[in-house]
User: Fold these one by one.
Assistant:
Number 1:
Amino acid sequence: MMEHSTKDHAELALDFNKDEDRVDWHDETLWFIRQKRDKAAHQLPEWEALREAASQIKNNVLANLHDYLLQFERNAVANGIEVHWAADAAEHNQIVRRLLNEANVIRMVKSKSMLTEECGLNEYLANHGIEVIDSDLGERIVQLAEEPPSHIVLPCIHKKKEEIGEIFHQHLGIEAGISDPQFLTETARQHLREIFLTRRAALTGVNFAVAETGEFVVCTNEGNADMGAHLADIHIASMGIEKLIPEKKHLGVFLRLLTRSATGQPITTYSSHFKTPREGTKIHVILVDNGRTVQLGRKDFRNSLKCIRCAACMNTCPVYRRSGGHSYHTAVAGPIGSILAPNLDMEKYADLPFASTLCGSCSNVCPVKIDIHEQLYKWRQVLVKNGYTPKAKKAGMQVMTWTLSSPSLYHTAGKVGRWVIKYAPFAVNNKLNPWYKQRDMPASPEWSFSEWYKQNRQP
Amino acid sequence: MTSRESILAAVKANQPETVKLPDIDVFETKEKGSLEKFASVLQGVGGKVAYVSGYPEIARTILAQYGSDVRIVSPVKELKDLSDENLEDIASIHDLRNVEVAVLNAHFGVAENGAVWITENEMQHRVLPFVTQHLAVVINAAAIVPTMHHAYDLIGKSTYGFGTFIAGPSKTADIEQSLVIGAHGPRSMTVFIIGNDNQSGQGQV
């Protein structure tokens, strides 16, 4: 279902920017969420100390991941949970399929799990005759629209309510022209309630898994993860190996930070702790690597594994807000996605670390203090060294090197540039110049600084 | 080599030098949990608060609110009069699909976020607090902790198969960030607070 586009971030952003009103609306909506995050954070005087503690706990997790994984497995198994290990996306998908086959299940309900997006699970299962219905409202909407989510917390933030009304008209049989969020949500409630009550298998993501106790925590506002899991005979929980935390008391730190950072709420409506299976039912936890151990070995980039998927870095990012989640063509968009994706495939995602102004706003709001903008900068260097530079940028950089290495060439180029902007603006104000997109070139000064200096200050 | 072995080997080879866990006890201040704050935060996330003198008043309030024609269930012993249905007897959890109101005891509330902690023991069936159209929860006025750190201090000593923090009714803002109450779970959540001498008898839902 995930579209495999060959366009890069800049081209996809250009598509999104065709509708200027929508861009403004998208920008303002996400900035509003960023402001709600600020308001929530400022209510806690210990906020910065909490971020520091969360960061240190996650550092400890990465340094002791081997032992924590074993400890979690031992305790989870003792609790009656079955633990599976998946080296990559393909193995994860095969395990899910095998578990469903063994139980003769061909229809599953799924709550939000970005990991299953990363693994392409829905598509894989559909190809093997297994139907998956996403139960998070936003995810159900994009699923019906046959699109990937554009945001990890707000999957359909790019869609207008009129479009959602049209999707529900086509797929859920409501009258045409309805756009009232209350009515649309009620429609989805009725539709999905029937799904929850008829599905024997449910898959959920995992927000945190506790090594000390072998339990895991799933957070939602809608209650969809719980509705699915508690009504099913089989609960499959998919998690990246980096989701572990050492002890239960550490949940106190992370649950205080997660939702305040994500939406500005003090906590999600539901923070559910699954420790043992319900009588007569099964819980399976799948521990997935899929490139995480490689990232763990990259000294400059391993900190990206501390991420708790709150999306604060997306909501604050001036590029994300004005280019839309789909322009990142990966399951996790935005700044954090741009440092995770190149680890999986440098060639395919070489454009993403360049989709940033390096302003650092992402690092400033990150609840676990990931140095996101610094990693973006470091990825650029790794990508260039490995020959994955976008072509246009490469040509431009060569001209730039040539010009900057010769003072006379530099002065001439400056003069030519000022002359052109003054007398022949069409030569730069055109489609060939990427700086002209969405902005006018500035008026050119009469003279350069060095010319001015020669005339006014030089003795 | 199995995937388990290869993942563990790769983790061991690539994990960085160990660093100590931070001291998080510093966040556990000596302050007491404020009932007022709990109530106002809970109301802020769409929950309702009712101060009552005891279980008989809870039963009266619920009957007055919802009437006796709808399916009301509760595993709370003191609320036997509210419903003659024994939740242990239901044949399948799917039979809970048409529950209108469920009343459950909770262990405690958290002032900073308006959440209450409920475990499987108080639910009888895990799905009950989610599948019901309206959820009512009972806590003691003294059982309020200030923060999540204090909460896990209490939880740490208990055992449960399933436990959850619930803060308000189920909700979503997935459509253009418009808040809608009643996503997949309860359309309302009321917390009945027993034992607050100043305000009991002023039950208002």
Number 2:
Amino acid sequence: MATLLEFKNVSKIYKRGKTETTALDNLSLTLKDDESTILTVAGESGSGKTTLAMLLLGFIEPTIGQIYYKGKDISLLSGSERMTFRKEVQAVFQDPFAVFNPFYTVEHLLEVPIKRFKLAKSRTEIRDRMAEALTAVGLQPDEIFGRFPHQLSGGQRQRINIARALVLRPKVLVADEPVSMVDASLRANILETLRTLQRNYGVSIVYITHDLTTAFHIANSIMVLYRGSVMEAGGVEQVIKYPQHPYTQLLVDSIPWPDLSRRWGQTDLEPSEDTVIGKGCKFYSRCPKAMEVCKTKPPLYQLEPYQTASCFLFKEKPQLEAESLSKALPV
Amino acid sequence: MNPVLKVVDLEVSYYTDAGRAKALDQVNLELNAGEKIGLVGESGSGKSTMALAMMRMIKPPGRIENGQVIVDGTNLTSLSEDEMLRARLSKIAYIPQGAMNSLNPVTRIGAQMIDAIKAHEPTMSKADMKARSIKSLESVELKPEVFKMYAHELSGGMKQRVCIAIGILLEPKVIIADEPTSALDVVTQRQVMETINKVQAEMGAAVILIGHDMGLMAQSMDKVAVMYAGRLVEVSTVKEMFTEPKHPYSQALIRSLPKLDVRGVFQGIPGLAPSLLRLPTGCAFHPRCQEIMDKCKTVRPENQMLASGSRVTCHLYGEGA
């Protein structure tokens, strides 16, 4: 089984004077070439979600560890390899209002990447390719060509963002909070679009969010981060329906389900003001079940075939090497 | 019981180069003391305009064309500018969208709170002002030390709670919060909502929560008002709204919500929100409506009260249905 993308013991540490902040702590992860998937990276602000996206896109380099794309370290790619990497690993960002140049028509915006990567030979071919991408995201090409971004709604713009990525036929799409600024009624359309991409075009999607509701519906697997460390990971249904790590339990308990029979949980909210992080479990200061042993760093324990948690509550279970995290993530 | 907030036939228009955009169209709403209502709708449906109109903060090219906003017996639309200035915060408080980024980064939280009190009660002693500010901070579960801190020393959730503390300084009768939790993660969101519920219960104030997260409405509101193209198309209790929504738009909205039992089923609402400059004739929702009838294309539906207590603006209900 060929590996498309691999994080190998990646850490990112930001230094400011003498203080060091570990934004991402020893993460290993693989995406396979022949099986596309949707992986959710969930966590609150400051959990390292965006750092992960930036690393994956090659915008920043890891402090420790390597990131491989098709077996090659992405910080050491040659010119042409880098072009391929840029073409095949695409991104959709949070704010559909801020990413477009307001002076250009949609046509122009979609044309730029096609020309840049020399993907089409003639004008008709360019047009066909744009039309195909727009149709794939559920837009009518005739209605969209020639329009300016300000003439489109937020949902339409976000879908054009996805179409822009799609004209390049990417292998990996990093979607950083793609629906958080879109109206609830349009969210469904965008999520459906993302899933169609994965199913019909074989694009693997790394879906970064703090919204577990949408993650539950769209993803195959989930990885819950807290202050740069993996707290729990596994199949999305398993993790969200039966969360085991105290942090995941707190998260899932706080989801405002639009369902009157499922009220907000009664778990007491521990104050989060404490910013001191020791060497041990990063959730220690907030954890309702904190023990003495938690002052040391907990390894990952395998709870189910597709569920692993980094918590000493499960110390009876077999350990899972950090490098083998992906084994607990179904595709 | 006399309602603490009464909005009567409120109408707001924006005069743009492209013509007049009716952002609020005959909006009627009543709210009792201690009641919590969620105001939902797509962007551009008039939610924030409604909040601004109630505060009389609509700026040109927008204008309040008609209607009254009565808070605790006082008609805000007939007050002078000076009187309105005093009514804001003391009778009706507004926590705007992204309020947590509105805190002044170079003055302490306490100074900003005292500013607000001073504007309304210039004769109060400094010690009393401080005592009141700290009491307000405590009621949103912040430590008194926050009084001396700067905004950058606080987390997002704490900043949002400071904004709520400022909002309740003068114990207003009505609190309007515009998407107070949209930038926060679920745990902090729940903390902030629990804070709002707590202060609301202590003060007996009425709360209007603007947002588009139906889950949040289900978890913490008593009633839900659905807005579409500047009109309130349905006002129902949370229970009615989630079990038996009346207006076809509310029904589509409820259907579009993610559920826990079935994974991966999405149902969006087809079509796009209409431009306020070129509203469809008759009922503005008719081009997207699944239960369209002939008269929806020509006759404008009136707002009516149903036997269940819901208010709905749709030809499917009432006389001639």
